[in-house]
# Entry
Amino acid sequence: ARQRVNAMGTLMLTYMQRIPQVSEEYLSAELDRPSLQLVDILRSGTPVVLTGCGTSYHMALNGARYFAAIAGIDARAVTSFDLERYSFGVASGRLLLAISHSGTTKATLDAVEKVRNSVAKVVAISARGDTKIARSADIAIVLPGGWEEAYPKTMTYTCGSLQLLRIACVTASCEPARKILPDALTVRTWLQESFDRNKDVVKEAAAAWKDRDVFTFVGGGPGWVAALEIALKMKENNYTASEGIEVEEIAHGRMAAVNRARPVICIVLPSCADRAADIVNAARHLGAPTMVVADENLAREFSADFVLTVPATPSELLTAILAVSPLQYFSHQLSLAKGINPDSIRTDDPVFAFAQSKWIFPPGTH
# Structure
């Protein structure tokens, strides 16, 4: 079974390999009319609440950071279930930006219906223009690359985050914002380099850690969102108990769980480099296997079992997006090393398939 899985091509890898091209195509094209409509609303100063589930929620966290940090907009992210059940009051008077790749996520659709009459407008971002959530929105935006057949959404996260980053930069329309995203070809090159230059190290790490079942991903600021997303991919792809933790939060009790059997992977950005170094050094002292992902300048300052490097960029918001690429590949390669199909999310397991259809995603929930 392991040989069969190792030899097969995977959808996940196909979409990861498409990311640089899709990103360049999107960044080279003019913004479409729905995106320009969103920019007009954002420029009016309307506060925003972003919502989604899973990878879409992680994109919402990124979007809230981009809108606030770049365009100075009051923006916050809330999970769909929480927004619908407990926090619907925070959406009042705001623009609601609802993200769902499939466009059929019940919790997100329920949140839209719950707050529809109290929000300024509803903007949907999904993989197609005719999804259920797109049809229910005032403005419907399509994700770069469109529909992604693989269960783990890798292209969706990276290209969707770039989409939100671009919209924030266009909204701000000032010199500092224009410098965050360089030309489309440069971004494509950076994404390709982030993937290609780390392949051998990633394969080595996956082979070394194939018997590990608990992983800790650490990051600060936008790197924390990247840590959350990769921890989710690890759980989806190779069924490991993976956790994404904020760089300061791990010091408050969670380091007690670090030991020789549990790799610690730290996404290092300039704003959190000192604290990240503390965490990596502590993990090494405790005997934990370590990996660092950093831009090529910062990486020289770190000692770890494995070091992955990405190009240095004008903004750590963009660097955090680049850092996801080699870690997505690590999640993929670890799955193969474990003899697991990274595309399946256990749908090929009859027991799990029953549980999923009965309770996890019963009909109508996704």
